[in-house]
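Q: Structure tokens for this one, please.
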Amino acid sequence: MISATYAEGKLKSNTQYFTYDNQVANSQGTAANVFRLSANYDLGVATVGGGMQKATYTYGNTATNFGLSAAVPMGATTLGVMIGSRVTDGYTDTAKNGTQASYSLNATYALSKRTGVTGQYSNWDNGVGGDKSTHTMLLLTHSF
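A: Here is the predicted structure, written as tokens:
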């Protein structure tokens, strides 16, 4: 594994490269290598970020994930949004090749310095050309 991180001022970024020696020959599910890149920037009124991960499998097929996010603090409340996609290519079962999409909306409210409540709604594709799933969550947190 090789990794590098940059954190200066309002910009933070990280990149990683993994290579694996426990590969199964001609396997469409065993990663040969993985590359990751992510960054976020504090604009003052919002923090925006993005990332990607590309996995190349021993058979040569790939899966690439992309994500973009934004968080906007407004006093005790922070509103957030995230969109993402997964692109798969090179699978012998061509039904596995394609793009899946997702998004998430969330709001966090600080009840005090140590207690908060978060609500989140998520929506994503179950598979290439498949049905969509959703998830709604309400979470109460407290730090001790």
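A few notes: The chain has one domain: 2-142. The CA atoms of residues 110 and 135 lie 22 Å apart.
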